[in-house]
Amino acid sequence: MSNTLPCLFVDLPTIAGNASAMVDLCQSSHINPVGIIKLACGSRDVASAMLEGGIKTIGDSRIDNLEKIADLPVEKMLLRIPQISRALDTVKYADISLNSEEHTLRALSAAAVALNRTHRVIVMHDLGDLREGCINADDTVALARLAASLPGLALEGVGANLACYGGVEPTTENQQQLVDIAHRIEAELGIGLHTVSGASSAALPLLLRHGVPVGINQLRLGASLILGIGLNDEPIPGTSQDAVRLAVEIVELKEKPSVPTGSTALDAFGNKPVFEDFGIRQRAICAIGKQDIDFAELQAVDPGVRIIGGSSDHLILDVSESALNYQVGDAVYFTLSYGGTLQCMTSDYVRKEYVH
Ligand SMILES: *Cc1c(COP(=O)(O)O)cnc(C)c1O
Fold it and tell me: Own/partner pairs for 46-49, CB < 8 Å, 24+ apart?
């Protein structure tokens, strides 16, 4: 097997362990967690690790990612509001989708009829985060009524998303609002809803404080299962933050001054660089660049390594304070934020190694 760098190492038993811990936590509150794999670009290995941990439904925001796991025998959910142009694929590859538009529901209905399938719909209500969903409860109820009446569709329930765009935190109050809307739909339509889908990993701190109201019976969990983080990127008790590591290779190692000689021009990205003089330092150039990752999303595992900058294809480190005796060709390891993980997962230039 190739062992080239840069490489993103993804530890599957750690993800399975995180999934198992969150399944246990959710089940004790009668909540069914959906495992979200978009952070891993729809990786089948990551989906399988979640299933091993007891997850029963897999979700992704992109239909192309769900297509990658089409033959995994598990219920699948499309998170991003479906595109009308991809209504057929949505019905083909997702059992359930999150919806907020009448025209889209009609397109999904036609697609479901054409494919002779029943597609399940969760109607989204906007609790204030200002991403997807109807902001007005009357509109949410009307959309639910439409979903329940269209051929080929089944109304699965209602949902809401928080802490994604507007940074609105899941609270007992806003989660209760969603439960109230679910009850209103059940009363007005005379039907029972299967699913009240509260929020993402951002709701886990509230769940740990027993603040998620009765009636919320689903959470959609991605960051917590893969990175062990939730609201404000803080670690979730009971999970590991060690599943994902980036290794990059040192291609040059030299002592150099910390201030350039004759600096007047702009850097490759049009910024005027600023330098502080720390004297002569041991500097490592690594083979990864801003094309692959925003350096602000990286944190070296070795406390003696400091990121000092770089360019499209080079990451420059100050390794003077390290206790390790780095050599050219050695690997340097980093932990990544949510955004950094996503970028490396998406970059074709970063190899992925799924560790079983
Ligand atoms: C991405 C996403 C999630 C999962 O969010 P995490 O913070 O990764 O847990 C949940 N719901 C929706 C609608 C999403 O788009």
Answer: 46/10, 46/12, 46/15, 46/226, 46/354, 47/72, 47/74, 48/12, 48/72, 49/12, 49/13, 49/15, 49/16, 49/19
